[in-house]
Amino acid sequence: MASAGISLDLFASPAQSPRYSGFIERFFRTLLDRDALEERTTDQPFCITCDRFAFEAHLRGRCSHCDAESDGGICEACGKPNAGADLIDPACVTCGGTPERRPLRQLWFPLERYRSAAEFTFACAWLNPRARALVAEMLAQPLPDVPATQPAEWGIAVPASGYDDQRISAWFELGPHYLALTDLLPEARGNPGGWQTPWTGFDNVVQCFGFDSIYFHVVLFPAIFQAFDPRLRPPIGFITNEFFRLDGSKFSTSRGHALWAGAFLREHDADALRFHLARVAPEIEQTNFTLDEFEATRRDELIGIWDDWLKDLAKRCEAAGGMVPLAPAPRSAPLALARLASLFGDLSHCYSVQGFSPSRAAHLLSEIVRVARRFRAEHAVFDGKPASALEAAGALAVELAFARSLALAAAPILPGFADRLWRDLGERGAVAEARWELLPAMPTAGTAISLSTTGYFEPARPGSEPAPPEPTSEAEAAPPADDIETAPSEAEGEPIEANAEARAEAPSPAERTEPAPRANRRRAR
Ligand SMILES: [Zn+2]
Ligand SMILES: [Zn+2]
């Protein structure tokens, strides 16, 4: 985790934590005490060869909703639940045999009785359109009863007499496990409060999981939470992903069709991997990982475009004395800075619950670099011309504002790169601790700059030379001459530093040109 730049507040081992299993048992007992579970005997698939009931991962057949191959419990293809017994052509996963039906006494949760909790969650919480469509379809029909116990040897014992040969079912552990883990969390932080703090207080809970768990998280868990404690507030948002494939087929550790993150990160840059994974994240459809595409992202984008600009900027900064120049902003600066502010507004949305999209954020980061490269290409004509020295210095300061904004905006996705760039730009403290800016600020004139002249991403391996940089003229269409003439130009003639201070007091040209979304303004305040 650390080698991927991921830090955790808590890493719990449920099997080793008596407090965890104690919490799950208490949760289950509360459901029993509140008459939220009903004892019922139903016919369930039983494998004679294996001499056991076949359920969930022990059972496979075809989904009665979409006809795809499915395990018992939930269909990975359409995301709809099944009762196991209703799978078409069911087979025991262990021996392949066709199970017969045998009566089984279990504790069941009557989900329909708690439908209002699922409806409330659906009405209030953020879900992406595909998840909304799936939940709406399920809520339009009577909700099924759900088994709360299963005939298994592995798992947490059922705290009720007569169920020694059963365990709390996976979903009746997974639901309360969120509460159990937040109950352990304050302990890990040395901060009392228990599970009630995030779940009944003013904190907002957001859950992230795969598409095939939508039913459990949005319909079942809010219902069992309400049965457990009506004060419990459901999450405000659910972030779901589709399947991510490797070389065109499903990851499978049992078949060895997998990439082991620890080994991969010993050979590859974590920031480059995180950036690529964000870019190709399966947010609305299944996507795929190939080593060639990852290498291309690093070589052609991060080294070929980002580093290419930053290395050139580093050399020009060195030549200019290694500090942010004190110079008036060039006439074209407000237009470029307005574009930067607009990109920041979009990025704010991508990092929010409602618009959460690492994929779009990664593309917007690349767009910041492209706008900066275009700005540089336009102003390269000042180089070596004494009559334009002041404008060249002002343009350099604007480019440094782009680099500073890139560091700030890239921090969630490329934390190592962002922090290094941030410090190289003379900013104090870690970029992760820096406040998000609604209007990207100009760097302070006189700040010492020590950008890397060798780039920020690992050099390409032999045989994978960087592709030629993308022509900046194609990266962004040249603005029509009219736009340049009508662009706000109040900043012209003012020193960059004074301009930055003025922006804090009054709406800047950028804000007037392209206001950021209201939600972003609120956050910035
Ligand atoms: Zn299905
Ligand atoms: Zn079997």
UniProtKB/TrEMBL annotation:
Catalytic activity, reaction form: tRNA(Met) + L-methionine + ATP = L-methionyl-tRNA(Met) + AMP + diphosphate
InterPro entries noted in UniProt: Met-tRNA_ligase_1, Methionyl/Leucyl_tRNA_Synth, MetRS_Zn, Rossmann-like_a/b/a_fold, tRNAsynth_Ia_anticodon-bd
Region (Disordered): 454-525
Compositional bias annotation for Low complexity: 472-481, 496-510
EC number: 6.1.1.10
Domain of life: Bacteria
Pfam short name (any one): tRNA-synt_1g
Cellular component terms (Gene Ontology): cytosol
Record domain Methionyl/Leucyl tRNA synthetase: where: 3-306
MF terms in GO: ATP binding; methionine-tRNA ligase activity
Keywords: Aminoacyl-tRNA synthetase, ATP-binding, Ligase, Nucleotide-binding, Protein biosynthesis
GO biological process, one term: methionyl-tRNA aminoacylation
Assigned protein family: Belongs to the class-I aminoacyl-tRNA synthetase family. MetG type 1 subfamily.
PANTHER family from the UniProt entry: METHIONINE--TRNA LIGASE, METHIONINE--TRNA LIGASE, CYTOPLASMIC
Protein name per its UniProtKB record: Methionyl-tRNA synthetase
